[in-house]
Automatic annotation (TrEMBL):
Record SUPFAM superfamilies: Ferredoxin reductase-like, C-terminal NADP-linked domain, Riboflavin synthase domain-like
Gene Ontology molecular function: any one: oxidoreductase activity
Protein name, entry field: Oxidoreductase NAD-binding domain-containing protein 1
Annotated stretches, region: Disordered: 1-23
Protein species of origin: Oxyrrhis marina (Dinoflagellate)
All residue ranges annotated as the FAD-binding FR-type domain in the record: 18-118
GO CC, alphabetical: mitochondrion
Alphabetic keyword roster: NAD, Oxidoreductase
Organism phylogeny: Eukaryota, Sar, Alveolata, Dinophyceae, Oxyrrhinales
InterPro entries (UniProt xref): FAD-bd_FR_type (IPR017927), FNR_nucleotide-bd (IPR039261), Oxidoreductase_NAD-binding (IPR052128), OxRdtase_FAD/NAD-bd (IPR001433), Riboflavin_synthase-like_b-brl (IPR017938)
Amino acid sequence: GSRFMASGAGHAPTPEEEGFSKATIVERRRITPTTVFLGLEITDPGFSFKPGNWVDFVIPSLQTVGGYSINSLPRELPKLSLAVKESTHPPAAWVCQESEVGHVVDIKSGGTWQWEDGMDADADLLLLIAGGIGISPLISIARAAAEASSRPKRVSLMYSSRTEAELAFRNEIESLEGLGVVTSLFCTGEVAAGAAQERISVTHVEDLAKATGADLEKTVVYLCGPPEMIDTLVDGLLALGNSL
């Protein structure tokens, strides 16, 4: 009954020549001091994705390919949204410093992570644990699971960042609570309203199970965040009865 999936918050895609779709930037705003939200519109009716997927992201003037998780839902196509964390990697630097509404890029969806209606329907708890920009694919999965007609008995999201300003998607997270998702925020570096000032630990998972009556042996966990966070949590989560 239980499954466990962990992923780093980024990936290194390999450029491919076929299967890309044109996307126009129709919205661009900074959602945290180091993260830019991009709203794209895709003209290709054949473009599709599943919640949890990323896109390979090609800027015409750059040779390097970016890889960013999708945080919107398939039903929202032809609109699609991404959150890009600032870095020296050329595509991320372009998004955060140079991109403008009206710019056209090439994208292609993919990835080993995907969630769709009916998955984990026999799970007692679908637990999504996000650190930093790792919230991006998990906000999509959380929304999809909350809206699914055949869904796990319980859905919960735990999300941590270093500072309060870096907690992205606060409005979306509040909306999830209205759909019955149990959400918990953690802020590791400072005191923040509505967030615990500590790192997410296995103890928090055990406390959640006790509070909600969830069976940890029938729990499916998706974990996405910085490598050190994943390393810290994986062994403890496996020991609770989650199998890879």
